[in-house]
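Researcher: We plan to redesign the surface later, but first we want a full-length starting point. Tokens attached.
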């Protein structure tokens, strides 16, 4: 596992962030396990969910991975992406929100 500089692994619930062997999270990325937006705006409970970066996955520089998302084995998340949904094993996503990048054949 490799964690770049200035990476944030959820400051309130770090125990809900799982980074597996061989995964890389590049500099200035944030991996969240909680969302308090509705707690602040609507008085609802905060959402807490396990976020997982699986074996061999790569999260590019300055990404945000939202609570409850799984980045699959050997998946790639392009720099600057906001990952709102699970990324399948071997998938490549990029953008805001992150979407699948078609492979060139």
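Model: Full-length starting sequence:
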């Amino acid at each position: 596992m490799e964690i770049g500089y200035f990476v944030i692994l959820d400051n309130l619930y770090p125990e809900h962030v799982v980074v597996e062997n061989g995964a890389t999270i590049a500099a200035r990325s944030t991996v969240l396990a909680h969302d308090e937006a509705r707690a602040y705006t609507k008085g609802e409970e905060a959402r807490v969910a396990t976020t997982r970066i699986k074996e061999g996955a790569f999260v590019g520089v300055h990404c945000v991975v939202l609570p409850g998302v799984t980045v699959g084995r050997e998946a790639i998340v392009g720099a600057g992406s906001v990952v709102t949904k699970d990324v399948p094993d071997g998938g490549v996503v990029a953008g805001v929100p992150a979407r699948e990048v078609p492979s060139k054949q």
